[in-house]
Task: structure prediction
Amino acid sequence: MGDGTLRLLKDVKEFVFVTYIHISQISMALNSDASYFTCKLPLETMSSYMNVKELRDVSSIHCIPYRKTDSKDTHIQNFIGHHCPSCDDYTFVFTPFTENKKLETKKMAL
Result:
């Protein structure tokens, strides 16, 4: 991330979670939208900000068992203290919050 991007982001107070990708897909994701950036965060930090479908998708990547009947809180608890090889191979993609971006990210699939 260049200095120009860092200057643009310094005043942004909210970000939208776009997707969770393998590190081999970073270039493709960043090239698809100039406002996207990646950030490595612990799963237990991000889990409370994700919806149940996102939690299930990430659970599958990390081989964390889940039941469709489990509550969001149960899914979140499964990420506490978790670390596996996939944790090092995946990253979160974010974009600065705007009303337009919020709508676009719901439609986007990488």
In short: The first strand starts at residue 15 and ends at 22. The beta strands are 15-22, 37-39, 90-96. The chain has seven helices and three strands. The two ends are 20 Å apart (CA to CA).
